[in-house]
Amino acid sequence: KQEVTQIPAALSVPEGENLVLNCSFTDSAIYNLQWFRQDPGKGLTSLLLIQSSQREQTSGRLNASLDKSSGRSTLYIAASQPGDSATYLCAVTGTASKLTFGTGTRLQVTL
Amino acid sequence: GAGVSQSPSNKVTEKGKDVELRCDPISGHTALYWYRQSLGQGLEFLIYFQGNSAPDKSGLPSDRFSAERTGGSVSTLTIQRTQQEDSAVYLCASSLVPFTGGSTDTQYFGPGTRLTVL
After folding, report:
1. Cis peptide before B55 (omega within 30 of 0)
2. Between residues 77 and 106 of chain A, which touch chain B (CB distance below 8 Å)?
3. How far, in Å, CA of B91 to CA of A41, rounded?
4. Best of B10, B23, B43, B103 to disrupt the A interface by mutation (most A CBs within 10 Å)?
5. Tens of pLDDT, residues A43-76
6. Which one of A98, A101, A103, A106 would you mutate to disrupt binding with B, by most B Cβ within 10 Å of its Cβ?
7. Is B51 helix (H, G, I), strand (E, B) or coil?
8. Mind listing the pLDDT tens digit for each residue in A11-55?
9. Is a pLDDT exceeding 60 seen at residue B32?
10. CB of A33 within 8 Å of any CB in chain B?
11. Which of A15, A65, B54, B60 could form a disulfide with A56 if both were Cys (CB 3.0 to 4.6 A apart)?
């Protein structure tokens, strides 16, 4: 059974800092990995999707990497802003077509 | 264009009653997913529809849960004889064409329905 873990569970950083969120998964037989953000009381917003054959994806200040063989992904956020405060979730798609979600990292960017 | 919509946004019901939750996917998306997010727990998969294929129901927690997708578009998740442990946020997502190896795999989520069973 696929298990997805995210470290740290919570993170507080001052505005302007660069930060890294970590995601690990136990079964490397994945089809893709997706990073989402969730704001309180709202649904999920897709940030980046990395196919299993890719190593990284970039969107603006966000960069996600994937090392499928070691079962790891990182989300790098450059020059953090208070608006980046949210819960960040990684999720992997396996052969069963469904997403298996991580436990999430709650990020707080302070002024 | 319009995103995934869900209704109602909030539902409060009494234990033992049946509830129906609705999801309108993005127009043209062939795949539709239901997930559940319980307090203190992560998101868990419930059911997946892809085109005219038989749905993947492997995530449904009990036979009180069922879902259908009419005309390849709107989906309804039904919970019969609700229990307090059914209280959660139910999220629906859709994707254009999954498993193509491209951006069409991306799942887009609705705002969710918060279900409270008293």
Report:
1. no
2. 89, 91, 93, 96-104
3. 12
4. B43
5. 899 999 998 889 999 999 999 999 999 999 999 9
6. A98
7. coil
8. 999 999 999 999 999 999 888 899 999 998 778 999 999 988 899
9. yes
10. no
11. A65
